[in-house]
From TrEMBL:
It comes from the Bacteria. It holds the Pfam family Nitroreductase. Belongs to the nitroreductase family. The keyword Oxidoreductase applies. This is Nitroreductase. Keywords: Oxidoreductase. GO terms for molecular function: oxidoreductase activity.
Amino acid sequence: MAVNIVLETIKKRRSIRSYRQEQIQEAELQAILEAGQYAPSAVNQQLWHFTVIQNAALLAELNTSAKEAAARFEDEHVQKLGKNKRLNIFYGAPTVILVSGREGALLVGADCAAAVQNMLLAAEALGLGACWVNLTVFAFAGDKASYFKQRLQLPEGYQPLYSVVAGYKKAAAVAAPVRKGKVVSYVR
Ligand SMILES: Cc1cc2nc3c(=O)[nH]c(=O)nc-3n(C[C@H](O)[C@H](O)[C@H](O)COP(=O)(O)O)c2cc1C
């Protein structure tokens, strides 16, 4: 089979957790956002909303609040991350795209997840680093939830579900770990 750039990009994409401070170009941001909006959605509802956050002070606030809420969460792994003083959940990325879904919409979590994956692949295709960061939504679970919703001007009735952080990679990504086997069955 001939080399295919899409398949190559899928295999090359990694979660990047170290970024340069420099902001990404507007054209790169728009290409990533467009890729997100071209994801499939249940009954083509497209009931997602993308909030671009490029304000360092606000990102610092979100980081603090998300970690405070994560530290109180029942899951041990999440709790540990919340309590990790050295962790910045955005890894210093200058751009964070929060993906929200319309509350109560059919399979909207799946729609938003597909949009996230499209954006991660777009970032990789453009030579940028990106990471799917779920911890962000913890900021909307704590007592500052309505403050953040207002500050981010989230549309009424939309719930933050996931986020993508993006920026220029500080270091080259390491190779992808070997895939865990035995996950495919064939019935032919
Ligand atoms: C639903 C979901 C939530 C994730 N949340 C986080 C997160 O909060 N922080 C983080 O650093 N990585 C997060 N990741 C990235 C995973 O840790 C990463 O995809 C996994 O370790 C495999 O590494 P790779 O993306 O480099 O292949 C998340 C991934 C998914 C699919």
